[in-house]
Amino acid sequence: MVKVTVWNEYFHEKTHAKVQEVYPNGIHNAIADFLRCEDIAVRTATLDDDECGLTPEVLADTDVLIWWGHLKHHLVPDEIAWRVHDEVLKGMGLIVLHSGHHSKPFRFLMGTSCNLSWRNDGDWERLWTVNPAHPIAQGVGRYFDLAHEETYGEPFRVPEPDEVVFIGTYEGTEVMRSGCTYHRENGKIFYFQPGHETNPTFYDTNVQTIIRNAVYWAKPVIHAEKLECPQVKKIEKVIQE
Ligand code: ZN
After folding, report:
1. For residues 210 and 115, is the Cβ–Cβ distance under 8 A?
2. Which residues does residue 118 pair with via DSSP β-bridges, in sequence order?
3. Most C-beta atoms within 10 A of its C-beta, which of 20, 36, 105, 132?
4. Is 5 exposed, middle or buried (0-12, 13-18, 19+ CB in 10 A)?
5. What is the distance in A from the centroid of ligand 1 to the CA of 18?
6. Does the pLDDT at position 177 exceed 90?
7. Distance from residue 150's CA to the centre of ligand 1 (Å)
8. Comparing C-alpha atoms, which of 236, 170, 178, 174 is closest to residue 211?
9. What distance in angstroms lies between residue 101's CA and the mean position of ligand 1's atoms?
10. Residue 133 has what DSSP assignment?
11. What would the pLDDT profile of 61-74 be if each residue is shown by its tens digit?
12. Separation of 88 CA from ligand 1 center, angstroms?
C-alpha cells in the first residue's frame, strides 16, 4: 500500500467560475479520485488547513506527496516548506505539478529560481516520451496530445535533471523538459509540467497514467525517522581467517 497526500492551494476553484466548472471539488480531489485504489491510500491537504495540512505526523505517514500550487506559494510558511524539504531528504517521494515549479518546497530542493518562459494562449501541447524504458513512461505511447495547455517553455531554470522522461512542444514551437526526475538524498522527485487550472488535464488518461506511475516510482525505499550526522566509534576488530 502506498500512502499518498495530495496537496493543493485550493484557491482558483473557489474564486474563478471557469475553474470551478472544470474542477468542482478541487484539483486535489480530482487527482485523489483517479489514484485511489486497492494499492494506493490517498488523503488530501490544502493551504487553509492547520499547518497547511502538513503536520510532522502527516508527513511521516506519507510515502508520496503530490503538490499543486500557483498564486499562493508565498502563503506557505517557510517552516512548513523546509519540513517538506527535510522529509524528502529522509525518503518521502515528491511529485510537483505544473505551476508548482515555483513552490517553496521545489525551489528549496532545487536551489535555483525554477523560472521558465510562459504564455497562455490555449495552444495544443504534444508530449513526447523520450525515455520509453522509464517506469514513469509505462503505458504511455510514443507521444500524446492535450487539446489545450498553458505553454511552459525553455529555458527551465532547474539543475540538470537526473532523467528527462517527457519533452513537451506546442503550437508555437516552444519546447519544455516536461517530465524530469531528481534524487535528493533518500527521496525521489518528479516534476510534471501539464495541469493548468482551466484545462481538464487531470481527467486525461495519459496524464493519469503518468501520475500513477510516478507515485509507484517515487515511493520510498528508505524513509528515515530523522536526518542524522552521527559521530561513530572506530571499529577495532578485523575478522581474519
Ligand atoms: Zn497554469
Report:
1. no
2. 152
3. 105
4. buried
5. 13
6. yes
7. 6
8. 178
9. 10
10. T
11. 999 999 999 999 99
12. 25
* E strand spans, 53-198: 64-68, 93-97, 117-119, 125-129, 143-146, 151-153, 163-170, 175-184, 187-192
Contact in structure between 216 and 135 (CB atoms under 8 Å): yes
Q: Strand pairing partners for 41? A: 3
What's the pLDDT score for residue 237? 84
Give 204-214 pLDDT, tens digit per residue: 999 999 999 99
Q: How far is the CA of 241 from the centre of ligand 1 (A)?
A: 65
Q: How many CB atoms lie within 10 A of CB 85?
A: 20
Distance 98 CA to ligand 1 centre (A): 6
* DSSP, residue by residue, 43-82: EEEETTSGGGG--HHHHHT-SEEEEE-SS-GGGS-HHHHH
Between the alpha carbon of residue 100 and those of residues 41, 85, 86, 112, 116, the distances in Å are 22, 14, 18, 14, 12
